[in-house]
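Weekly sync, protein design subgroup
Attendees: M.S., D.O., the rotation student, P.L. (late)

Item 1: inverse folding check
M.S. brought a backbone from last month's batch and wanted to see whether the design step gives back something sensible before we order anything. D.O. pointed out we never logged the input encoding, so this time it goes straight into the notes. Structure tokens as presented (190 positions):
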């Protein structure tokens, strides 16, 4: 029972923090201004890890390398802690640890896409004039715009978020299965 609770708490905390680090990198890609509330909150939560790394890894023009490396480090720590809770020696996993960490980062990124898409879809129905809508639209547009060209609107209803949700869910299943098959986690959730 303790192991299940510890895994749940670790999964929740590390997934949220990993998503914040990825969101920080994504905010730079979509050129989100740093003074909006979302950017400000993400920067405050992640500065403690990203700023020291930025001294070693300078920012690229569009790629925030420090945030991406911080995400990978976070994933490695997460996997090591999950292995320790599962009473597995992390040194046995050394060759595969980086691959599983990379798959975990991909899983966090896919989860972030789902969360942002669901939030945008809900707000577009409940409160389309919400101050968060322009931010959510800017973050999700690179994923939804190509789908909008494929799926026409039906009576003013945009079905592209549903298609994106299905695509990302399938990708999540593939990534999760690959990560679990490479580890000794058994029934532990990554």
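Designed sequence read out in the meeting:
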């Amino acid at each position: 029972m303790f192991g299940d609770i510890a895994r749940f708490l670790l999964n929740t905390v590390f997934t949220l923090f990993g998503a914040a680090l990825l969101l920080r990198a994504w905010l730079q890609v979509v050129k989100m201004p740093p003074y909006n509330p979302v950017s400000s909150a993400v920067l405050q939560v992640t500065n403690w890890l990203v700023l020291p790394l930025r001294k070693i890894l300078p920012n690229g023009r569009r790629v925030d390398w420090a945030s991406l490396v911080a995400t990978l480090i976070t994933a490695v720590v997460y996997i090591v802690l999950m292995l320790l809770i599962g009473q597995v020696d992390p040194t046995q996993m050394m060759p595969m640890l980086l691959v599983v960490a990379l798959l975990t980062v991909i899983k966090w990124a896919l989860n972030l896409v789902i969360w942002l898409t669901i939030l945008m879809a809900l707000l577009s129905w409940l409160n389309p004039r919400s101050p968060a809508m322009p931010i959510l639209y800017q973050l999700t547009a690179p994923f939804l715009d190509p789908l909008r060209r494929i799926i026409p609107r039906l009576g003013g209803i945009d079905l592209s978020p549903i298609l994106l949700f299905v695509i990302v869910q399938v990708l999540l299943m593939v990534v999760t299965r690959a990560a679990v098959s490479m580890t000794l986690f058994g029934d532990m959730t990554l």
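Discussion: The CA atoms of residues 116 and 130 lie 14 Å apart. Confidence is low (pLDDT under 50) at residues 185-189.
Action: P.L. to compare against the previous round before Friday.
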